[in-house]
From TrEMBL:
InterPro entries for this protein: YjbR, YjbR-like_sf, YjbR/MT2646/Rv2570-like
Short name of any one Pfam family annotated for the protein: YjbR
SUPFAM superfamilies associated with the record: YjbR-like
Protein name: MmcQ family protein
Source species: Enterococcus mundtii
Lineage: Bacteria, Bacillati, Bacillota, Bacilli, Lactobacillales
Length: 119
Protein backbone atom coordinates (compact mmCIF):
# COMPACT_ATOMS: atom_id res chain seq x y z
CA UNK A 1 0.00 0.00 0.00
CA UNK A 2 1.48 3.37 -1.00
CA UNK A 3 1.43 6.54 1.10
CA UNK A 4 -1.55 7.95 -0.76
CA UNK A 5 -3.64 4.89 0.08
CA UNK A 6 -2.43 4.92 3.69
CA UNK A 7 -3.39 8.60 4.00
CA UNK A 8 -6.83 7.90 2.55
CA UNK A 9 -7.30 5.05 5.02
CA UNK A 10 -6.22 7.31 7.89
CA UNK A 11 -8.64 10.04 6.80
CA UNK A 12 -11.53 7.59 6.95
CA UNK A 13 -10.83 7.07 10.67
CA UNK A 14 -11.58 10.74 11.39
CA UNK A 15 -15.13 11.58 12.40
CA UNK A 16 -17.50 12.95 9.77
CA UNK A 17 -15.13 12.85 6.80
CA UNK A 18 -16.37 12.95 3.24
CA UNK A 19 -14.10 12.30 0.26
CA UNK A 20 -14.90 13.26 -3.29
CA UNK A 21 -13.44 13.97 -6.71
CA UNK A 22 -14.76 17.45 -7.60
CA UNK A 23 -12.54 18.11 -10.61
CA UNK A 24 -13.79 16.40 -13.75
CA UNK A 25 -10.58 17.25 -15.60
CA UNK A 26 -8.54 15.63 -12.79
CA UNK A 27 -10.48 12.54 -11.66
CA UNK A 28 -7.59 11.29 -9.48
CA UNK A 29 -7.61 14.42 -7.29
CA UNK A 30 -9.25 13.70 -3.95
CA UNK A 31 -10.71 16.26 -1.57
CA UNK A 32 -11.10 15.48 2.13
CA UNK A 33 -13.86 17.55 3.70
CA UNK A 34 -15.93 17.80 6.83
CA UNK A 35 -19.28 16.27 6.02
CA UNK A 36 -21.12 18.72 8.30
CA UNK A 37 -19.71 21.93 6.79
CA UNK A 38 -18.19 20.95 3.46
CA UNK A 39 -14.91 22.62 4.49
CA UNK A 40 -11.80 21.11 2.98
CA UNK A 41 -8.97 19.89 5.16
CA UNK A 42 -6.95 18.04 2.55
CA UNK A 43 -6.44 17.73 -1.18
CA UNK A 44 -4.50 14.95 -2.88
CA UNK A 45 -3.04 15.92 -6.25
CA UNK A 46 -0.21 14.95 -8.60
CA UNK A 47 1.90 17.84 -9.86
CA UNK A 48 4.57 18.05 -12.54
CA UNK A 49 8.02 18.28 -10.96
CA UNK A 50 8.91 21.48 -12.82
CA UNK A 51 5.95 23.28 -11.19
CA UNK A 52 7.55 22.57 -7.82
CA UNK A 53 11.06 23.55 -8.88
CA UNK A 54 12.24 19.93 -8.97
CA UNK A 55 14.53 18.80 -11.77
CA UNK A 56 13.50 15.92 -13.99
CA UNK A 57 10.33 14.76 -15.60
CA UNK A 58 7.26 13.20 -14.11
CA UNK A 59 4.86 14.01 -11.34
CA UNK A 60 5.00 14.14 -7.56
CA UNK A 61 1.98 13.04 -5.51
CA UNK A 62 1.12 15.67 -2.89
CA UNK A 63 -1.36 16.36 -0.17
CA UNK A 64 -2.30 19.96 0.62
CA UNK A 65 -3.05 20.55 4.29
CA UNK A 66 -3.91 23.60 6.34
CA UNK A 67 -1.38 24.56 9.02
CA UNK A 68 -0.34 27.42 11.25
CA UNK A 69 1.63 29.99 9.19
CA UNK A 70 4.59 29.77 11.59
CA UNK A 71 4.73 25.99 11.17
CA UNK A 72 4.49 26.37 7.39
CA UNK A 73 7.49 28.72 7.34
CA UNK A 74 9.53 26.11 9.22
CA UNK A 75 8.33 23.09 7.23
CA UNK A 76 9.04 24.71 3.84
CA UNK A 77 12.75 24.59 4.70
CA UNK A 78 12.65 20.78 4.88
CA UNK A 79 12.72 18.17 2.13
CA UNK A 80 9.30 17.11 0.89
CA UNK A 81 7.47 20.35 1.70
CA UNK A 82 6.42 22.93 -0.91
CA UNK A 83 4.38 26.13 -1.10
CA UNK A 84 0.74 25.06 -1.36
CA UNK A 85 -0.24 24.10 -4.89
CA UNK A 86 -3.30 26.17 -5.94
CA UNK A 87 -4.13 27.09 -2.33
CA UNK A 88 -3.45 30.03 -0.02
CA UNK A 89 0.29 29.72 0.57
CA UNK A 90 0.11 31.43 3.98
CA UNK A 91 -2.29 28.89 5.46
CA UNK A 92 -1.73 25.74 3.38
CA UNK A 93 1.30 23.65 2.49
CA UNK A 94 1.91 20.86 -0.02
CA UNK A 95 3.52 17.72 1.36
CA UNK A 96 5.10 15.07 -0.87
CA UNK A 97 3.62 11.58 -0.77
CA UNK A 98 6.75 9.98 -2.21
CA UNK A 99 8.51 8.94 0.99
CA UNK A 100 10.34 12.24 1.57
CA UNK A 101 8.10 12.87 4.60
CA UNK A 102 7.50 10.15 7.19
CA UNK A 103 4.10 8.48 7.29
CA UNK A 104 3.59 9.44 10.95
CA UNK A 105 4.25 13.10 10.10
CA UNK A 106 1.75 12.97 7.22
CA UNK A 107 -0.93 11.60 9.53
CA UNK A 108 -0.15 14.27 12.13
CA UNK A 109 -0.38 17.08 9.56
CA UNK A 110 -3.65 15.79 8.13
CA UNK A 111 -5.15 15.53 11.64
CA UNK A 112 -3.97 19.07 12.46
CA UNK A 113 -5.58 20.31 9.25
CA UNK A 114 -8.77 18.47 10.18
CA UNK A 115 -8.77 20.16 13.60
CA UNK A 116 -7.99 23.63 12.21
CA UNK A 117 -10.89 23.47 9.75
CA UNK A 118 -13.43 21.82 12.04
CA UNK A 119 -16.14 24.26 12.97
Amino acid sequence: MDLTDKLINFATTLEGVQMDHPFGKFPDYIVFRHQSTGKWFGLIVSVEKDKLGIEGEGQVPLVNVKADPEIISILKKSKGYYPAYHMNKNHWISVALNGAVAEKQLFYLLKESYDLTNG
